[in-house]
Amino acid sequence: MSTDSAGARTVALALLANAGVGLLKLVAGLVSGSGALLSEAAHSAGDTSTELLLATALWRSSRPADRVHPFGYGKERYFWSLLAAVGIFVSGAAFSVFEGVHTIVSPERAAHLLWINYPVLVLAFVLEGISLRQAIRSTHGEARRRKRSVGDVVRDPHDPTVRSVVLEDTAALIGLAVAGLGVGLHQLTGSAMWDGAASLVIGALLVVAAVLLAQTCKALLIGKQADSRLMRRIEERLEEQDEVDDVVDVLTMMTGVDRILLCTRVDFVDGFSAGELEHACVRMGELLRREFPDLDEVFIQPASKDDPLVQQRVRARYGHELADTG
């Protein structure tokens, strides 16, 4: 299954789960007067809006390159995912904190039929669990494709949409447990403070999720390099070619999910004609694209490994000269 299709399935399932669960939480919160359930309803509303933004990200980032955007629209996925992070913070976290403070400072607000919250929380937990399971399966699939561990993919994802769902659903499951604890303590002690405290914890969870997702999107939007292991493999493959004396510089940037821009500076073996080097560059470009399918555009530039300006730029970027590590 491709990254896009897996991501679309994950986002669609999360959208349906959050929309349905959000309505149940809202009804339960209004009927019982529970601040924790109303915070959870805001949580689900924020997650639903987030899934809509992620669906937009998947759709718009798949458009082909054109004259205005010659490297395609892949980074739109990062932009819309960043908006999703802002949406989590504004619509979910802000309301949850407000509701928690309001419940604590206004304990006289009536609360009744608190028992109705428990079946809603259980059902919500089941649906969120199904959504999280799908997100984790997508993460395992990406880890297998990239030959990385699941932990590496979660910490440093190429596709922020799947990580968004993992973060949302994980925060949702923790939030549901906190909401259940808050409602139970409220019912047991008669003090609405516990309900309000649960709302504050839910708000804090959403702040953490929003910040983590925003950090990922920021790095990708600025222009993050490809995985360092991939760069080393590209360097090794180029240096195996008869025409190549040494790889002087390797520049990569992720222009989208499964899209990598590659620029290399290569010191060629002396004695080849210009025509032979042209054919060699074409052949090496095709070789790299076959072996590394994520490469979208490949540029190979001749350069001398003794050029002091190139050495200085490479050393400033990587802390060493590639030609010295060969």
Shape: elongated
Beta-strand level of the residues, as a percent range? 5-15%
Residue stretches low in confidence (pLDDT < 50, at least 5 long) are: none
Order of helices and strands: HHHHHHHHEEHEHH
Gyration radius (Cα, Å) is: 25 Å
Averaging pLDDT over every residue, what do you get? 81
Please list the strands of the largest sheet in the order they lie side by side. 1-2-3
Structural summary, described in words:
With 326 residues, the chain is mainly alpha-helical. It is built from eleven helices and three strands. It has helices at 3-32, 35-61, 76-105, 117-146, 150-155, 160-189, 193-222, 228-239, 274-291, 308-318, 322-325; strands at 244-256, 259-268, 295-302. It has a three-stranded mixed beta sheet, with helices on both faces. Helix 3 (76-105) runs antiparallel to helix 7 (193-222), helix 4 (117-146) packs antiparallel against helix 6 and helix 6 (160-189) packs antiparallel against helix 7 (193-222). The longest helix has 30 residues, at 3-32. It is elongated and about 90 Å long.
Sum this structure up briefly.
With 326 residues, this protein is mainly α. Helix content is 70%, strand content 10%.
List the helices and strands and how they pair.
Elements: H1 3-32, H2 35-61, H3 76-105, H4 117-146, H5 150-155, H6 160-189, H7 193-222, H8 228-239, E1 244-256, E2 259-268, H9 274-291, E3 295-302, H10 308-318, H11 322-325
Parallel strand pairs: 2-3
Antiparallel strand pairs: 1-2
Question: What are the key terms here?
Answer:
10% strand, three-stranded mixed sheet, mainly alpha, 11 helices, elongated, 3 strands, 326 residues
